[in-house]
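During the reporting period, our protein records have gained a structure token line. One record among many is quoted in full directly below:
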Amino acid sequence: MKKLIFTSMMFLLVFSGHAQRMLPGQKGLEAIVGTFTSDSPEKNYFLGTVLTIMTKKGNYQLYGVEYAHRYAEYKGTSIPLETFLGEAGYSFRLLADRKKAIAVYAGIAGVGGYETINRGEELLFDRAKILDEEGFVYGAGGRLSLEVYLFDRVVLVLQGRAKMLWGTSLEQFRPSAGAGLRFNL
């Protein structure tokens, strides 16, 4: 009997209340993690959190912060490259099913922040000097995301992203892929 009640409750949680999704003014808090390359994802990753505010037609505004950590190899040693970014943008719903359980979004954003190389240390272990400079960076980003409602207030987000940064002495174009969860408030 307990198994039947539990199964019924889970069924109701997953499949009920689809009309309460994507309402204008609804806010969500998203936590996301991802990687830049397929080799060494544990060394080349990003973490972020995003506040979303739903608008008309299922679109949403986004405001987020991100910490990106990458490594550059030099004579068998790894040099840390860290970026702290803020972003503000807008996501447009491209496709969605009738019950609004699955949706595909495309978004654009403006980004800005600070980038450090080797945590501010200019000299390496062999007395070589790093010529790349750390400092403020700015640019634009784009994203394509698949969003799946697990429950009415919990959304699984799978993203492919790309950022174009200026003010950096490292690579300007930075593609990445990530996954996260959004909790609608």
Summary: The first strand starts at residue 27 and ends at 35. Strands lie at 27-35, 45-54, 60-74, 77-96, 102-117, 135-151, 154-166, 173-184. The chain has one helix and eight strands. The chain has a mean pLDDT of 83.
